[in-house]
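Our collaborator T.R. sent over the components below with a one-line note: 'Predict the complex.' Nothing else. No constraints on interfaces, no templates requested, no preferences about which chain binds where. So this is a plain run: every listed entity goes in together, and whatever single assembly comes back becomes the starting point for the next discussion.
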Amino acid sequence: MTLHRFLAACRRQPADATPVWFMRQAGRYMAEYRAIRERYGFLDMVKTPELAAEITMQPLLAFPLDAAIIFADILPLLEGIGLQLTYEQGEGPVIHNPLRSSADIAALHDADPRETAAYTIQAIRLVKRELEGRAPLIGFSGAPFTLAAYAIEGGSSRDHRLTKALMYAEPQAWRDLMERLTTQVSAYLIAQIEAGADAVQLFDSWAGALAPGDYAEYVLPFVQKCIIQVRAGCGVVPPPPIIYFGVGMSGMLGLLRQTDADVIGLDWRIYLDDGWAQVGPGVAVQGNLDPHTLLAPWPEVRRRAADILDRAAGRPGHIFNLGHGIVPETPVDTVRRLAEFVHEYSAE
Amino acid sequence: MTLHRFLAACRRQPADATPVWFMRQAGRYMAEYRAIRERYGFLDMVKTPELAAEITMQPLLAFPLDAAIIFADILPLLEGIGLQLTYEQGEGPVIHNPLRSSADIAALHDADPRETAAYTIQAIRLVKRELEGRAPLIGFSGAPFTLAAYAIEGGSSRDHRLTKALMYAEPQAWRDLMERLTTQVSAYLIAQIEAGADAVQLFDSWAGALAPGDYAEYVLPFVQKCIIQVRAGCGVVPPPPIIYFGVGMSGMLGLLRQTDADVIGLDWRIYLDDGWAQVGPGVAVQGNLDPHTLLAPWPEVRRRAADILDRAAGRPGHIFNLGHGIVPETPVDTVRRLAEFVHEYSAE
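Returned assembly:
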């Protein structure tokens, strides 16, 4: 059986065309998504397997994408260990009992993501059935640092001041928290793989807030441990590809390589070939068109997409994606044309 | 006459110790600053030369710093060409008639920064008198892109969506705006040098929002033009050092080098030696401690400062600074100890 082109690229094997999927490909830019969103809260959508499965499939039915990614959220994992989460209109996620001390961290409880995120595991099973092998399904989780940052800040943050202050002032409490989150994330990804995920992505969206020395000391060891645990514990040989994606980390790609992920996701702030040179030869790369480029007239989008494909040409192991999630204002037609263009241009 | 160690480092000449100053060194973390701020609005402080001069001197009187930087704001330059600016409590700058079309851009008027920012020019003269040569004075301006982004977004922005959309959809209007701003910035910096500034810094705080290809096409040519104009027009031989500082640009340092600035300011998201290797041998570097590190216990601050100095050791041309501005929660005592430590450790 031929490996699907997305999985081939993850393993740096040649493919008939460059595979393409988009972060946040199921989202507000699609009318089909908005129609469901009008009737349900965001967390209701995430926590109802039938809705999550339907939303996951929407972009697959609309565009020639090479992978589905389960519609889920990174924060319910925190609910499972004792944090109180709501989504406020226009504000994004709010954690009502943020972690501010070692006592707060010690008071967290253990949980089995198979139970606390059972809805996402079930949604994966439903999507696998619907996909019928047409495209691989990507599972995902927030990486330990990004989860820790949400739990400490109590939501999004521009500067992650409280997270850094705790990390510096209470390094043992920090490690306890990261250990606990690493255990959660590993178990969660293993459960997703057991339910049928063909690859998994770790989103470390906030790790780019750190200086490289701090990343190396306070974060990287936990990402490494997580990846080792998933590979050892998932029961699949060879284990499914693991993608590690951070934002604002162009200055520390050498450290990202040390995660030992199969694929490194690049944001848009570096030329793809420069980034690939820095992560080195033994790793696939995913990226890296600026999501806001999709607001441009189509010839401008095409020119920039072609540049990225040109920079990746001549070696297997490139998965085309944006450098971050699709923004809500993106025209659907541009998404369709871009997916088609990636295939046509790279197959030439 | 021996060159002051800050100016020596800017010119990559050996110095007796590594020079140190801090972005936003005159600011809310100091009680002396807060005492003035309680009585005056932010723009009042900027626009009253005596107050701006007093504030500029506060950190120089408190800490062993190697340079003063004029207390000023980057946005009044936009007022001069027709934008209406206020600072809202807790919101930061708000521009009430943001640029949203080529017609808006065409309607901007010309202005002479000598007149429209006369208060800052006068403040520079006052500070120069007070300093009596004890330390060099740095003048500064927002770089053309960052000013354009403020003018288009109407204030701060997380994603600079409107800026990019205009840049992509109306490239000629974009160039007209950047030309106009380049002229303003060049004239402003020349006026600052004529008034006595010993060096000038271009703050391109938002340029890291762009992909490198977009930076190279839509921004870099104007930075280059600005630097050429300042050097040619300032009437000083050799012209004062020019520092170019961006945030989130670790993936495009090769392009920053092409600005031909004397000094490249690095944010904290890259090891200093990695960053210096990428900007190349003929450029000095400034940076790059994470400002939030200053919230850590002193031994942690010292360890990270020593690491930066170690990474810069053995070649002249390093100016110690933070990777962004001092945050208001910073303990004054840490600022003092850090400035002292940089001198002691680097002189050893």
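Summary for T.R.: Chain A touches chain B through 39 residues (CB under 8 Å).
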